[in-house]
Write a structure and sequence with these properties.
The structure is a single chain. The protein is of the alpha+beta class and 158 residues long. The chain has two domains: 100 residues, Ferredoxin Thioredoxin Reductase; 43 residues, Rubrerythrin, domain 2 (Single Sheet), CATH 2.20.28. Helix content is 30%, strand content 11%. It is built from four helices and seven strands, in the order H-E-H-H-E-H-E-E-E-E-E. The strands form three sheets. It has a three-stranded antiparallel β-sheet, with no helix packed on it. Strands 1-2 form a two-stranded antiparallel ribbon. It starts with a helix and ends with a strand. The relative contact order is 0.12.
Length: 158
């Protein structure tokens, strides 16, 4: 996929989810090229602003949009790489929320054979009371990507 096609899809997805992309077109195009390069390198569109460490499974938390996006947007008005922004975007450096590889691996459980066993969800699950959409994250989304209900319509599910 070329950069312009992927960029248009990012714009549509962001708008559908109630998000905005950074207004700096060149910056966003560079980030989009980085996402596509990481797709070729690693098999996933991992955040181009973070280091890919370990195995593919160790990096699923930074597949764009990463699991840290909503908390960063709520607190700083932008995500870590500044691809996604809010109307209230602040000129602050967004700190890294992602735990180190060692910390993430500690959370992974192994069975008797030494295989990774499915771990308990590291995030609470929120359910949209309007349409039933489920989201596992620290906080519910600002806007439901399915029915566009606000975050106040989400309830903790699990």
């Amino acid at each position: 996929m070329d950069v312009q096609k992927r960029l248009e899809k990012l714009r549509r997805d962001a708008a559908a989810g109630g998000y905005k992309l950074n207004s700096d077109e060149d910056f966003v195009a560079d980030l989009t090229a980085g996402l596509l390069a990481n797709q070729e390198r690693y098999g996933i569109e991992s955040c181009p602003c973070r280091l890919f460490t370990g195995e593919k499974e160790d990096n699923m938390d930074i597949v764009c949009p990463c699991v840290y996006r909503d908390d960063d947007l709520a607190e700083y008005g932008a995500c870590f790489c500044a691809l996604y922004v809010t109307d209230e975007a602040q000129n602050k450096q967004v700190p890294e929320r992602r735990p180190s590889l060692e910390e993430r691996r500690k959370e992974a459980k192994t069975d008797e054979a030494g295989e990774k066993a499915p771990a308990a969800l590291p995030y609470p699950v929120y359910r949209c009371s309007v349409c039933g959409y489920l989201c596992a994250n620290n906080n519910p989304p600002r806007i439901c990507p399915i029915c566009k209900a606000g975050s106040e319509r989400f309830e903790r599910f699990m």
